[in-house]
Amino acid sequence: MTCCSYLFRKKGSSSSSTTRLPAVDIDISEIQNVNFYSYKELRIATEAFSPANKIGQGGFGSVYKGRLKNGSVAAIKVLSAESRQGVREFLTEIKVIASVDHENLVKLYGCCVEENHRILVYGYLENNSLAQTLLGHSSIQFSWHARRNICIGVARGLVYLHEEVRPHIIHRDIKASNVLLDTYLQPKISDFGLAKLISPNLTHITTHVAGTAGYLAPEYAIRNRVTRKSDVYSFGVLLLEIVSGRPNTNRRLPVQEQYLLTRTWNLYEKGELERLVDAFLDGDVNIEEAVRFSKIGLLCTQDSPQLRPAMSTVLKMLMGKKEVNEENMTKPGMIFEFVEAIDEEKQKGKAEVENTSSLLTGSGKQDDSSSSGIATSFATMTFTSIYDRSN
Ligand SMILES: Nc1ncnc2c1ncn2[C@@H]1O[C@H](COP(=O)(O)OP(=O)(O)O)[C@@H](O)[C@H]1O
Ligand SMILES: [Mg+2]
């Protein structure tokens, strides 16, 4: 494995022993637990980033499977050109990501910051993501026990990020494709801290909206307000997906069932939440627990962030150590309802869509307790961008 001295090597010269990067005056030795890989090593590991080794494509770039020099298998994430930040900003965030270590978080092995390249190297997870397995096509059968374990594991990882690690980390992109599974179906959250690796003048909200609008808390999507409670919202959506075995939005279903949150709320009001539970379980489920999990999902997705419980409370409720108080529970907040309301207006010719965009822009604010950082990049989302991609 290449050590950090790589960074300071001039082309063609052998490694030097300095531990400073003069151009940005960063003391690399401060960044512990991070391996610095050469571009060459990662190129070899992925067979020149060959399409055959590509395992995914997300909003931040492409992911390749590769074998590192030391023999370990890694997921190598090549950040896209637009995402490239300066070395200093990049390494500052890497330092934060590398400092966290938890059994329910994907391990960052290291990175490559050679020239314009910004590449992250993670531990490879055998069983892919929940999006591809539970919600996609795979032969894995998820028993209730496995699902329960996944929900609790993800909650644990989030409690750690939100409440234990200092400074706290808001994930900002909790969704089924960011929950990876190891050989034993133990869940590991990936991509924490990644939102902050993105150049502040890039509106990555558009990529969010492209695939994952259904996980976005309304205050985040509309007013760019990022707090730990926006992660709680996304977790609530994920929880309901795991219980029901279906994605949050499915346009192939009858209209009244297309949105998981609407369906869950309707069933809750009728006192029929057990109907939400995945039919694939074929009754082999602790139904009381599954209904309780669904109610927790509803608590997490309430419109008002203040009403949503903190992750540590969610974890206690999932584990049956705290009662689920559904008194005064309010309807889930959903951005697509907002979108549809405007759409109706548009149909009636009463509203100019572009004018509406001004409603949706605004200065970002962050939870005071969040890690200090940018909340600037998402303010340019327009109604049009939500609308176009929600189809
Ligand atoms: N550490 C990993 N181990 C195995 N597969 C991974 C890993 N990281 C990412 N992937 C795969 O690559 C895909 C793309 O990842 P990513 O770029 O994070 O986009 P997204 O999370 O939006 O799907 C993931 O959905 C997953 O299938
Ligand atoms: Mg991801």
From TrEMBL:
Q: Which UniProt keywords apply?
A: ATP-binding, Glycoprotein, Kinase, Membrane, Nucleotide-binding, Phosphoprotein, Receptor, Repeat, Serine/threonine-protein kinase, Signal, Transferase, Transmembrane, Transmembrane helix
Q: Could you tell me which InterPro entries the record lists for this protein?
A: CR_Ser/Thr_kinase, Kinase-like_dom_sf, Prot_kinase_dom, Protein_kinase_ATP_BS, Ser/Thr_kinase_AS
Membrane topology field: Single-pass membrane protein
The Protein kinase domain, residue ranges:
49-324
Q: Where in the cell is it found?
A: Membrane
Record carries keyword Transmembrane helix: yes
Q: Which CDD domains match?
A: STKc_IRAK (cd14066)
Which residues make up the binding site for ATP? 77
- The primary location reported for this protein is membrane
- GO cellular-component terms in the record? membrane
Disordered: region residues: 353-373
A GO MF term:
ATP binding
Record-linked PANTHER family:
CYSTEINE-RICH RECEPTOR-LIKE PROTEIN KINASE 3
What family does the database annotate? Answer: Belongs to the protein kinase superfamily.
Protein name (record): Protein kinase domain-containing protein
Recorded source organism is Crotalaria pallida
